[in-house]
Design brief:
- The chain is an alpha+beta fold.
- The chain is built from 15 helices and 11 strands.
- Among the domains are: about 180 residues, 3-hydroxy-3-methylglutaryl-coenzyme A Reductase, Chain A, domain 2 (Alpha-Beta Complex); about 90 residues, 2-Layer Sandwich (Alpha-Beta Plaits).
- Helices cover about 40% and strands about 25% of the residues.
- Strands 1, 2, 3, 4, 5, 6, 7, 8, 9, 10 and 11 form an 11-stranded mixed β-sheet that branches.
- The longest helix has 25 residues.
Length: about 375
């Protein structure tokens, strides 16, 4: 990295007004997006986002990066907007991004997109329950066609059946396009159920809770709820020592304790602190922040390479979109524009890849801070006034 590139890649630091202005200027020079000036949504624009509106609660926003990414949909350098009130988070993610960028960046691959609503049908006896399952299999295409009348942007991928006692769950799975899709799948499932009830007479509840919406679950760890993405980066030993202050041999040799003790605690997956990164990026880009509860399921690992360590992260359940909901808010939409995700085909998949790359960077920085015994020191320096 040349001195000129390094200067361009160094976000100005400091807590003063002039420092904030310098960062705004830096972002404009880097991306062409002006984050300065007051941007406020009118009450009329908030329909569908909030009821009983009385004002806005401001959350501090930071910029970190640049992040160098080689994705299927996200390629190049990106500035990451974060909304958080946790000191050290932005600095830590920035440190992880720097280490990765110095070593060629992060590779990201999007491998799945699906969201479901899972109504349950209830029966008085097992004979009706069995007959219903046969009927669904024979009429599956008609059910799909009914569901797809509700949307121009989504499509039904499949309908899975789960039976327990005299209950049959129909997990109606959609590709939701650029929308996060919670409302889309709910409406599609409702119309599908109305068709089924008209044809069969059986009663239903629209949500069985098997898809565990906004709840961490084994189902969401395996099948996902939204986008599935894997990110990986290989960081040279020299960079680990200089930037992350971590001896690579000590980190690799000590790492096995983490998944073992995590399993003792009963955690789903093997993660560091995904919810920190996800919530900060969700608030900044207009996502449903409550989805961080299920989206924080992750699988993190470290591999030893010649003169380096490879860090890998799989996020199987990212419920994010680039249209609808909070993405309509002006500041959040401007942040999506900053990421190059405010429009275009597959923009939600691009956003998911960016989120995965940034989350991996924060994980790497934290695990190195813990391993090098600088974690507490960092919080005392940046997490207090």
């Amino acid at each position: 990295m040349t001195e000129e590139t390094n200067e361009r890649s160094s976000i100005p630091r400091g807590y003063g007004k002039e420092d904030t202005k310098n960062r705004i200027d830096w972002v404009k020079n880097f991306s062409g997006i002006d984050l300065g000036g007051s941007v406020e949504d009118s009450p009329e624009d908030l329909q569908g986002i909030i009821e009983n509106h009385v004002g806005f609660m401001k959350i501090p926003m930071a910029i970190v990066g640049p992040m160098l990414l080689d994705g299927t949909y996200a390629k190049g350098e990106f500035c990451i907007p974060l909304c958080t009130i946790e000191g050290t988070l932005a600095m830590s993610m920035n440190r992880g991004l720097l280490a990765s960028s110095l070593c060629g960046g992060t590779k990201v691959r999007h491998f799945r997109q699906e969201l479901s609503r899972a109504p349950v049908f209830l029966f008085d006896d097992l004979d009706d329950c069995a007959k219903f399952q046969v009927w669904v299999n024979q009429n599956k295409q008609k059910i799909i066609e009914a569901a797809e009348t509700t949307t121009k942007h989504g499509r039904v991928l499949r309908i899975d059946q789960y039976t327990v006692q005299n209950y049959v769950v129909l997990d109606i799975v959609l590709d939701t396009g650029n929308a996060a899709g919670q409302n889309m799948v709910t409406l599609a499932a409702k119309v599908a159920c109305e068709f089924i009830q008209k044809e069969t007479g059986f009663r239903y509840f629209l949500e069985s809770n098997i898809n565990s919406d906004k709840k961490a679950s084994i189902r969401n760890m395996l099948l996902g709820r939204g986008h599935g993405v894997t990110a990986e980066t290989t960081i040279d030993n020299a960079v680990l020592k200089k930037v992350l202050k971590m001896d690579p041999d000590i980190l690799f040799d000590s790492w096995p304790y983490y998944p073992i003790i995590s399993s003792m605690a009963g955690t789903l997956g093997n993660s560091i602190h995904e919810s920190n990164a996800l919530t900060a990026m969700y608030l900044a880009t207009g996502q449903d922040a409550a989805c961080a509860s299920e989206n924080s399921i992750a699988h993190f690992s470290i591999e030893k390479k010649e003169g380096a360590l490879k860090f890998k992260l799989t996020l199987p359940s990212l419920t994010v979109g680039t249209v609808g909901g909070g993405t309509r808010l002006k500041m959040q939409n401007r942040n999506l524009e900053l990421l190059g995700c405010s429009k275009g085909e597959n923009s939600s998949r691009k956003l998911a890849e960016i989120i995965a790359g940034a989350t991996l960077a924060l994980d790497i920085s934290l695990v190195c801070a813990v391993g090098s015994h600088t974690w507490t020191e960092a919080h005392m320096k940046y997490g207090r006034k």
